[in-house]
Structures are given as structure tokens and as C-alpha cells.
Amino acid sequence: MVATTQQDTGVDGGVGATALLVAAARAIETHRPDSLAQDDFAEHFVRAAPASAGWPTRLQDVPDGDANPLWGRFARYFGLRTRVLDDFVLQAVHSAGARQVVLLGAGLDTRAFRLDWPTGSVVHEVDRAEVLAFKHEVLSAAAPTAKAARVPVPVDLRADWATALADSGFDSAAPSVWLAEGLLFYLPADAETSLIATVDRLSTPGSALAYEVKLEPDLMTYRDSPLYLATTQQIGIDLLDLFAKEPRPDSAGTLADTGWATSVHTPFEFTHRHGRGPLPEPNDALAGNRWVFAYKP
Ligand code: SAM
Known about the structure:
Elements: H1 17-30, H2 42-48, H3 69-96, E1 100-104, H4 111-114, E2 122-127, H5 129-142, E3 149-154, H6 161-167, E4 176-180, H7 189-202, E5 208-214, H8 226-235, H9 239-242, H10 251-257, E6 261-265, H11 267-274, E7 289-295
Parallel strand pairs: 1-2, 1-4, 2-3, 4-5
Antiparallel strand pairs: 5-7, 6-7
Helix pairs in contact: 1-2, 1-3, 3-8
Bound molecules: S-adenosylmethionine.
S-adenosylmethionine binds near residues 15, 109 and 186.
């Protein structure tokens, strides 16, 4: 049963619009002189959608530049996240030999085009139909060449997405790499529990999963943070309104109990590793963000 609180309005509103927010952040990151990740397609999505056509895609178009909580610090967070998960997925396919990748809540992720995939790789992009339709339209106009076979899987992740994935050619007898980037906090807790159990069920030994969670006990603690206020005021996206507010499951603990090797990281660890990215600050909406890496031995 699909809960009704999320409407599929594509990228024009609701949770779908958050895909445009991340695309704009990746466009800005791409044009930074000290860029952590390159995505030449991100700008196309931002310009194509009425909701985001006027948003900046370069930091020099932002009057207060890096001091802007949304297009400075928050965009840099997305740039860092993109880089870290690029590295995770490439390491997983190259060293573990997995050839199928599943992007859960793929949004406007263009890894199928951007990354150097081993021959025979398949990228399954799971998101809601309207978001994937917009993505298809923009990519058709730009006509880039994918570096892996790319399979859109239009389905709601609160419903029976495993059947849709199997129908798209996913082989649960072969190792796989999974990403849930910027997704789980929009889903009800029971949908996260079910998603993690499904990933486990569909993953052979040698598979890998990375996902992002927010661990603060009360999301509303940071409702007056510069990051949430700027996102609401500058582009009309109230992230706290979109997040599921109920207590979150301990997905990393569940995976560890089922035999996965897990590690939980703050984004700030990677800021130090790369020498750039967001650092902690007072009243920080990123304080509870964690990136979890899991490997099935
Ligand atoms: N992973 C992408 C990235 O990092 O660029 C997109 C992240 S965006 C913040 C969140 C994405 O999750 C959106 O594309 C949205 O449509 C998708 N999403 C949210 N709830 C979903 C659901 N119930 N079923 C499928 N996709 C969903």
C-alpha cells in the first residue's frame, strides 16, 4: 500500500523538486575551480524545469557567494556527497566485480554518463515515473552517450519496487552495488525498514550498499538553522516539511546483525580527507547526517 502524503508531481514540487536542488548544487560544484565532482548535465536539468530555471548554476551568480547557506555551504555538501559516493561505487564495481548498480531515488543522478564503468555494467535508476520522465526528456535533448547500460525503473519506493526491479532485468543471483543518496529521510520508517530488508534479500555476497541518514532525535531541533531557512526562503523548498518526522530505524544495526560489514561516517570526515567541504557549525542542520557504507561478505 502506498501512503498518500507524497504526490508524484515530478520535479515541479514536493519531494521531486529536491532532485533539482541537488542538480543545481552539482552544477555549482562542477564550475568551482577546486571542484570535487564534475557533472556537466546538472545545469541542463536546472535550466529545463520552470521551478528552477532562475536558480544559480555558478557560485559567481550568487551575490554572497560561499557565505550563502544554500548555494555556498549546502551546495558544497552535495558536491562532497557526490564525490564520496562516486568513489564508493567505482571502488565497489572495480574491486568486487559487481556489474549491476541500483540507484534508489535516482533523481537526476547522471552517474551512468559520468563515470568510467567496467564493460557490461548496468545502472538501474529507480524513482517515481514523473521524475524519470523529466530526466528522459532533458537527456534526450542533450543526447549524451551513456557509459553503462541505463535502465529507468519507474516505481514508488513505498510500494513493491523489487518486482519492478526484477522486471527491468536485475539479477538477484549476481553481485550488486546499491546507492540510496538523499532518499531515506523522505520515506516513512517502515518503508526504510522494508527497503533495507529488500536490498539484503536481493544482494549476493560481494554486494555493497551506501546510503545517507539523518540521526538527530528530533529533526525540528534545527528548524531555525541558516541552511533550512535559506532553502525555504530562496527556493521555496521546506525540507523539514518533506522529511518523515517519525523515529528512524537503526538500519546500520540491522545490516550488521545480518552479517554485513558496516561503517558509519560523518560528512566532515570527508571534508578533512579532501581538504574542502562543509565543517560543523552552530545550529547545524547537517549535524545528524551520516553516510553509511555496507559490504556483504
Ligand atoms: N539520489 C539523487 C541525487 O542525489 O541526486 C536524488 C536525490 S533527491 C534529494 C530525492 C529523490 O528521491 C527524488 O528524485 C525523489 O523523487 C526520490 N523519491 C522520494 N521519495 C520517493 C519514493 N517514495 N519513491 C521513489 N522515489 C522517491
